Each structure stands twice: as C-alpha cells, then as structure tokens.
C-alpha cells in the first residue's frame, strides 16, 4: 500500500473525529449550544483579562511616568550612538595598517 494514501486517510478520519468531538462539546446536556467565551486552551496561553479599572489605573500611572521624564530618558538611551569623524578616521587608519601588515607577510 502507498504510505501517502494511508496517511491521507488517517488524517481525514482524525479530522472527522475532531469535528464530532467539537460538536458534542458545544452542546450541553439540555441540547442548547453554550453561550459565552470558549474554554481556555493552550493556544490562548491561559492569560487573564485586565479589567477596565485596572486598564485606567495602568494608563494613569504610565502617563505620570512619561510626565516625570523617566521613560523619555530610557528612549533617549536606546538611540544609536554616532561616531565622530576623527574616531572613524582613526579606526580606518588602524585597519589599513593591519591589512598592510598582512599583505607584507605574504
């Protein structure tokens, strides 16, 4: 038998079984569909939700931090540093000297 065909048939059976399980789980004992959020699974990560009051509180605290300048200083620290032209020339000259030494050894 062809292994690919067997795998395809097994996957089709698995999909059908998964659909049947989902349909049975969706219907509660009274025969009505469940209403509300779906159950937490591994795809959701099991994280909780933040309440509206907690969001407001966090927003207020972050605005205060920005106003105090604490977060602005961090943003400035993350900027890329620029090398001066003199420093760049010095590094380039040192690199040229290294390559000249390598060429001289050949």
Topology, element by element:
Blueprint: H1 3-26, H2 52-68, H3 70-77, H4 85-105
Chain-averaged pLDDT:
81
Helix content: 55-70%
pLDDT < 50 runs, ≥5 residues: none
Count, helices: 4
Shape: flat
Number of strands: 0
Q: Tell me the span between the first and last alpha carbons.
A: 64 Å
Order of helices and strands: HHHH
What is the structural class?
mainly alpha
Largest sheet: none
- Radius of gyration over C-alpha positions, nearest whole angstrom: 32 Å
Report strand %: under 5%
Description:
The protein is mainly α. The chain has helices spanning 3-26, 52-68, 70-77, 85-105. The mean pLDDT is 81.
What key phrases describe this protein's structure?
single chain; 106 residues; mainly alpha; 4 helices; 0% strand
Please sum up the structure shown.
The chain is 66% helix and 0% strand. The chain has helices spanning 3-26, 52-68, 70-77, 85-105.
């Amino acid at each position: 038998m062809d292994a690919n065909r067997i795998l395809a048939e097994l996957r089709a059976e698995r999909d059908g079984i998964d659909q049947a399980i989902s349909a049975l789980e969706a219907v509660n004992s009274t025969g009505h569909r469940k209403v509300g959020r779906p159950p937490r699974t591994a795809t959701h990560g099991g994280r909780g939700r933040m309440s509206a009051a907690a969001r407001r509180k966090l927003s207020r605290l972050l605005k205060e931090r920005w106003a105090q300048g604490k977060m602005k200083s961090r943003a400035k620290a993350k900027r890329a540093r620029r090398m001066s032209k003199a420093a760049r020339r010095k590094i380039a000259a040192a690199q040229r000297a290294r390559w000249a030494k390598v060429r001289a050894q050949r």
